[in-house]
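INFO  loader      accepted 1 record
INFO  loader      residues=226
INFO  predictor   begin
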Amino acid sequence: METDTAASFDQTTERLPAHQEGPPPRPHVEAYRAASNALARVCSRITDWEAPGLGEWTVRDLAGHVDRALVNVTAYLEAGTEPGAPFVEGPVAYYRAFWGRHDDEGVAERGRLAGQALGEEPAITIERDRVLAQAVVDRTPDDARLRTPVGTMTLAGYLPTRTFELAVHTADLARATGQEVPSSLDAAWPEVIRLAAELAIENGQAVDLVMAITGRGTLPEGFTVL
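INFO  predictor   done
INFO  writer      dumping tokens
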């Protein structure tokens, strides 16, 4: 429930000393929260889970794929670190580690299996996974280390990759099911766009991207920062 705090705020004339202001902001956590909330909202309104979703995926398959951005955060933290695994600095390095790996069939199959795992009530399963993942993220420090397929990362380094997946695929799900893309994703888009720009720079695509978004050209066919 939202409350109006304007009156009490107006009555406050002095800020509390810094040491009394509470924990520092965690914008990457709030972006993840916004994206996961948007996913749950879109999924709660889906009526046909076997409709076409994205590419060869059904809506169920696509939802299962994006649900992994919830369950894997918890699973990777619980797995701990692997001795001798490389340390991956952040989200750009994470995606860079996948470049050149052509496993489209594997990704598609994992999506289908994840979709099946959602069970008879996919929206309820996704909401459960969202609540659990968010609780884990909220109580875990940013420097906590987790195990990913490409190496050891900190939570703060890994989480933006999950926000990216959640936001993009929530938009995919909304469009596939005739819904509007939730405005609540506005709180996640800055992080998503920032990461996309960093990936474009890393890929040597910065000029193409800037020219397109400023109306000076169009993106090449098949353009992607991933």
